[in-house]
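Hello again, I could really use a second opinion on something today. My current little project is about how a certain protein chain folds up. You're getting the sequence in one-letter code plus the fold written as tokens. Here's the protein in full, and shout if anything looks odd to you:
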Amino acid sequence: MAKLSHWGWLAGLGALAWAAGASAHNIGGTDAAFVAATRGPDPVPFIYLGAKHMVTGYDHLAFLVGVIFFLFRLRQIALYVSLFSLGHSITLLAGVFFKLHVDPHLVDAVIGLSVAYKAFDNLSGFKTLAGVQPDPRAAVFGFGLIHGFGLATKLQALNLNPEGLLVNLVSFNVGVEVGQVLALTLILAAMTLWRRTAAFEPMAKGANVLLMLAGFVLAGHQIAGYVYGGAVS
């Protein structure tokens, strides 16, 4: 019965892994129309848009799940999340404000690979293959820079009006941080409950394998879009 329960958990994680890889998140519809029509600084709506984008950003959240998977102390979690936030804040603001363009498909492919990288790291893959483990803090900060470019490409596609651009960009970034805190609070609550069960230890490896697969699915989806000229997702 316990084995069946474990397989049930893994099936659910598999569905989440597929969603993380295949689900698109973008700024579109009425949100895109609002941003395109904005003239001058309008911080509150941009805070909302930033929070919404992070909460629905399955690739960003999947990476954060990998980052905190084996972190048990709040001080450690705060350090790694702060490094990630610093990284994506730098490239989000600089990418849009200084018009540093990177192909969205390629950026999102690297974001997918960042998910796979962290899951592989959690599985001690680097220690097994090379006998050493890359500094996880540097990796999280570095991938934070890439994730920030991913956010920047979504905003660049909207042709933001230069009036009030800096205020709106900072507001969007604040919203991203708010959304990240909200999402992480829920993720940590769920993981804390899971860690207290007997199922966590035997399932941790399988969960990270699925997380790694999710990253490869997302990367493959974006590479295919780049090669075949698909719409940005």
Summary: Confidence is low (pLDDT under 50) at residues 1-5, 7-11, 13-24.
